[in-house]
Model the fold of this input.
Amino acid sequence: MLFTTEFEMSMDFDNILKNEVEQIFSQSINDKRACELLSFSIQREIKENISYQTIRRYWNLAKSVNPVSLQSKNILCRYAGFNDFDNFIEYFTTNKETAKGADWNIIKDWYTVRHNDKPLNDSVYWHDKLSQTFAQFILTNEFVFDSFSKAMHTNEVAMKYIISYHPMYDNLAKKWYFRGLNLFIRSSNEFHYKLFEAVLLFMGNAFICKNENLSFYAEQIEFYLPKVRKKYGVVWSLEARSIPCLLYYFKLNNNEKRFNELKQDCLELATKKANERFEVDNNDLFVLFVSDYCNMFQLSDLSIQLQEIQPINFKEKKLWQNGYETASLIIKAITLFLDNKGKESKTLFEQVEISNLNFDFKKYFSIQYRLLELGFCNKMETKNKIKIEIYDTILKSV
Done:
């Protein structure tokens, strides 16, 4: 860092870092055994090495002439979810507000992991309005989510019902969301969570045209997807997010063979497994999300084919009413628009009640809705107004 402000000098970043690490580690570092366990945890979770002796010196449990190196502090920062010590300092210099007073033990007591988890029955409770409101409270507030992720990152149920059931597309541009998400996912041995994270990171980079980063995440998707299939058979929501990302990647890299193979697999998946379920999901979600991604990745021909095989319909499904039904209208309208069926597209567009969108993708689909609105608008003054509103929504999402 080139400059150090008076405010930064007044903060004891070493002690703040120790506190952050202890929160993630879920215990105080006050003896040799704790130092050994922390060293092992760091190696296991982020695949980096820091000796227990170095940890002892940093926590002032052993005398030392030389201070702990910046390299060691960087490792501790990465364990706490930051890129390095500079990034850590920047975060705590900028974010003076915290949610440290939140007591998450009530959640641990409220809903604990059982040996025989029955997701279908449990999800009825977790998908009611109270569950959605609770998830919204956590996932839309940086400081609440920061506190939640530190306290709950080892809780599989919290990960499952808050994170993976609410992908939070509105947070794809927010570093704090991925920092908390990474804490959850690295504590789990489940491949489907790791696949979920790789897909979201692929999307985040693709949407801002950081194509140089896509190769790494595409390789992760290709690595984890077969493992998830082997264990679960089909997870519609993950299949639907993974396949379009790979299609876009292969198209971008002119890999026509892999592109055509995957496109055919996608169509066969929708045809052959139309009635197969994973938890509460069937292939309605598959067609919904594949169509959405393909429209954005300029692969609308596949969206059209899929919707011919399996029309998207959520009206009779109480679990996915309102938000998903509204999103499906937007997706179907966009697909028709891209297929040069403007009249049919506008008919669906006029049925959309944008206020019904679920919190986890309200801005995400609102932007698509306004872009479609641009396509139907003829007045330049109105077009400019819509463009400003879209730009403002995007800025608020970063």
Remarks:
- The two ends are 24 Å apart (CA to CA).
- The first helix runs from residue 6 to 10.
- Residues 1-10 have pLDDT under 50 and may be disordered.
